[in-house]
Amino acid sequence: MGKRKGYIFTNKKSSNRAVMAVILGIISLVSLGAVVFAAYRAGGEASPRHGITAILALIYSLTGLVLGIVTLAEKNYYRVVPAVGVLLNLAALGGIGLILYMGGYLG
User: Fold this and answer.
1) Helices (H), 42-78
2) What is the pTM of this model?
3) Helix-helix angle 80-106:16-41, to 10 degrees
Protein backbone atom coordinates (compact mmCIF):
# COMPACT_ATOMS: atom_id res chain seq x y z
CA MET A 1 0.00 0.00 0.00
CA GLY A 2 1.21 3.44 -0.82
CA LYS A 3 1.36 6.31 1.56
CA ARG A 4 -1.85 8.34 1.58
CA LYS A 5 -1.70 12.05 1.35
CA GLY A 6 -3.68 13.83 4.00
CA TYR A 7 -5.57 17.03 3.72
CA ILE A 8 -5.01 19.95 6.02
CA PHE A 9 -8.15 21.98 6.65
CA THR A 10 -6.59 24.51 8.97
CA ASN A 11 -3.78 26.98 8.79
CA LYS A 12 -2.97 26.70 12.49
CA LYS A 13 0.55 25.85 13.53
CA SER A 14 2.41 25.01 16.71
CA SER A 15 4.21 27.70 18.65
CA ASN A 16 7.75 27.70 19.97
CA ARG A 17 6.59 29.93 22.82
CA ALA A 18 4.08 27.29 23.89
CA VAL A 19 6.74 24.59 23.91
CA MET A 20 8.98 26.88 25.95
CA ALA A 21 6.13 27.46 28.41
CA VAL A 22 5.79 23.69 28.90
CA ILE A 23 9.54 23.28 29.35
CA LEU A 24 9.68 26.12 31.90
CA GLY A 25 6.74 24.61 33.78
CA ILE A 26 8.45 21.23 33.97
CA ILE A 27 11.71 22.82 35.11
CA SER A 28 9.85 24.77 37.81
CA LEU A 29 7.99 21.75 39.13
CA VAL A 30 11.09 19.54 39.15
CA SER A 31 13.09 22.28 40.89
CA LEU A 32 10.44 22.71 43.56
CA GLY A 33 10.24 18.96 44.07
CA ALA A 34 14.02 18.79 44.47
CA VAL A 35 14.01 21.68 46.95
CA VAL A 36 11.25 20.14 49.07
CA PHE A 37 12.98 16.75 49.02
CA ALA A 38 16.35 18.27 49.96
CA ALA A 39 14.78 20.22 52.82
CA TYR A 40 13.02 17.06 54.01
CA ARG A 41 16.30 15.13 53.94
CA ALA A 42 17.95 17.91 55.98
CA GLY A 43 15.33 17.58 58.72
CA GLY A 44 13.27 20.57 57.62
CA GLU A 45 16.20 22.98 57.52
CA ALA A 46 16.34 24.78 54.17
CA SER A 47 19.64 26.38 53.22
CA PRO A 48 19.93 29.65 51.28
CA ARG A 49 20.66 27.59 48.15
CA HIS A 50 17.18 26.10 48.42
CA GLY A 51 15.68 29.58 48.62
CA ILE A 52 17.57 30.73 45.54
CA THR A 53 16.37 27.66 43.65
CA ALA A 54 12.78 28.42 44.68
CA ILE A 55 13.15 32.03 43.52
CA LEU A 56 14.48 30.85 40.16
CA ALA A 57 11.55 28.42 39.90
CA LEU A 58 9.22 31.37 40.59
CA ILE A 59 10.84 33.40 37.80
CA TYR A 60 10.68 30.45 35.40
CA SER A 61 7.04 29.75 36.17
CA LEU A 62 6.03 33.40 35.79
CA THR A 63 7.85 33.58 32.46
CA GLY A 64 6.25 30.34 31.29
CA LEU A 65 2.83 31.54 32.39
CA VAL A 66 3.20 34.75 30.38
CA LEU A 67 4.40 32.83 27.32
CA GLY A 68 1.49 30.40 27.57
CA ILE A 69 -1.13 33.11 28.00
CA VAL A 70 0.27 35.17 25.12
CA THR A 71 0.17 32.11 22.86
CA LEU A 72 -3.37 31.23 23.96
CA ALA A 73 -4.49 34.75 23.08
CA GLU A 74 -3.36 34.38 19.46
CA LYS A 75 -5.74 32.70 17.06
CA ASN A 76 -3.30 31.09 14.61
CA TYR A 77 -1.88 28.52 17.03
CA TYR A 78 -3.10 25.22 18.39
CA ARG A 79 -4.47 25.47 21.92
CA VAL A 80 -3.40 22.21 23.61
CA VAL A 81 0.30 22.85 24.19
CA PRO A 82 -0.10 26.41 25.53
CA ALA A 83 -2.92 25.24 27.80
CA VAL A 84 -0.65 22.51 29.21
CA GLY A 85 2.07 25.14 29.70
CA VAL A 86 -0.31 27.43 31.56
CA LEU A 87 -1.51 24.56 33.79
CA LEU A 88 2.04 23.42 34.61
CA ASN A 89 3.14 26.94 35.47
CA LEU A 90 0.03 27.56 37.57
CA ALA A 91 0.77 24.32 39.45
CA ALA A 92 4.33 25.53 40.09
CA LEU A 93 3.07 28.91 41.31
CA GLY A 94 0.55 27.13 43.53
CA GLY A 95 3.34 24.97 44.95
CA ILE A 96 5.45 28.04 45.69
CA GLY A 97 2.47 29.71 47.33
CA LEU A 98 1.78 26.61 49.40
CA ILE A 99 5.40 26.43 50.53
CA LEU A 100 5.34 30.10 51.55
CA TYR A 101 1.99 29.76 53.31
CA MET A 102 3.01 26.66 55.24
CA GLY A 103 6.36 28.22 56.11
CA GLY A 104 4.65 31.27 57.59
CA TYR A 105 1.92 29.24 59.27
CA LEU A 106 4.16 26.67 60.88
CA GLY A 107 7.11 28.97 61.54
Assistant:
1) 48-73
2) 0.84
3) 30
Cβ pair 96, 31 in contact under 8 A: no
Taking residue 55's Cβ as centre, other Cβ atoms within 10 Å add up to 11
Determine the pLDDT at residue 2. Answer: 61
Asked if the model's pLDDT at residue 25 lies above 60, the reply is yes
Give the pLDDT of residue 107: 60
Read off the pLDDT of each residue in 29-51 and give the average, rounded to a whole number. 90
In this structure, are residues 34 and 53 in contact, taking their beta carbons and an 8 Å threshold?
Answer: yes
